[in-house]
Amino acid sequence: MKEKIIYFDNAATSYPKPEGVARAMVRFSTEVGASPGRSGHRLAVEAGRIVFEARERIAQLFGMKDSSRVVFGSNATEGINLGLQGLLRPRDHVITSSMEHNSVMRPLRAMMRKGLEVTVLPRSREGLLDPQEVRKAVKKNTKMVVLNHASNVVGTLQPLPEIGKICREKGVLFFVDAAQSAGAVPLDMEKERIDLLAFTGHKALFGPQGTGGLVIGERVEEKELVPMKRGGTGSRSEMEEQPDFLPDLCESGTPNTVGLAGLLAGLDFVLKEGVERIRGHEIGLTDRLLRGLLETPGVTVYGPRDGRKQTATVSFNLRSMAPSEAGLRLDEEFGILCRVGLHCSPSSHRTLGTFPEGTIRFGLSYFTRPEEVDRALEAVGELARKEA
Description:
Layout: E1 6-7, H1 19-32, H2 42-61, E2 70-73, H3 76-87, E3 93-97, H4 102-112, E4 117-121, H5 131-137, E5 142-148, H6 160-170, E6 173-177, E7 196-200, E8 212-216, H7 257-273, H8 275-294, E9 299-301, E10 313-318, H9 323-334, E11 336-337, E12 339-341, H10 346-352, E13 359-363, H11 370-387
Parallel strand pairs: 1-11, 3-4, 3-5, 5-6, 6-7
Antiparallel strand pairs: 2-8, 7-8, 9-10, 10-13, 12-13
């Protein structure tokens, strides 16, 4: 008999997936299998259709008119690196915040050694950035503001429309890391004045690992963007120079087409269900979890502590137990799978005051059931009582 588990690590990778995701990947592997854009035969055409439709769905989800400006890669990290390394030059100035993922901070730190200037704005203990601090930090050489939409540690949602408006007024690019919010929170690049948006497929878009990329707004000119890699694209094969148009400029090599088939199925599920409906369900689950944790003696909860102000990601600690021990016991004694530690965002924990041990993170999803939340609350309460 399969052990019954409660999966609360959706902020890392969503599980389970909609049934159609696995079916789409099996169908591609058994009935298609060809490389998209590399041949003219029927299977290559079908592979190309799958990639094109996945690109169209991403554009639809984020309010982009031109799907050719959706660049696929292996994950949001690759998309972030493409946007940062492809557009920033020495002596440019970038504004970011104290609660970014290492997928943003590590490229920026490396580029600082080559002359990039970086300002890290502090966030509140709830994880919120004041838009006026962004306005005050803009300088003559500011090229970009790069921020996550939702914290991967406490789920805090940033006021994108206000920040986007400031960026547009100041003539700087607004780059949003949507790894935690894409598919779970409504996003419209035009309305929120987002110029670059990095997304991953394996979280709330319900696709497989190894899928994601970058959506490039129309204010970014192809001639300004330096690709991270160059090679075969299936287009302009008579040339030994990289194509100068999107998406081919930034998509060299055979893509993860079986993964994109799965991502397409995940996107179809999200669009059919509707992001607003998904969001509403997750707000209810998050508030249910937060109420229970806040009522449990010996538990400290971090972040906004309000489902409307965060994603379905909740961080907390037990006062009498290290998060590493708590995570192990939740798994072994209760079958609750979560993540503990620093969550690849040490600066977030310095902001929260939880460095260096980090927190216990519960990441819920659209497939989480209320009774699973209740069972997890019972388990946390039992651990807290045992160690009191």
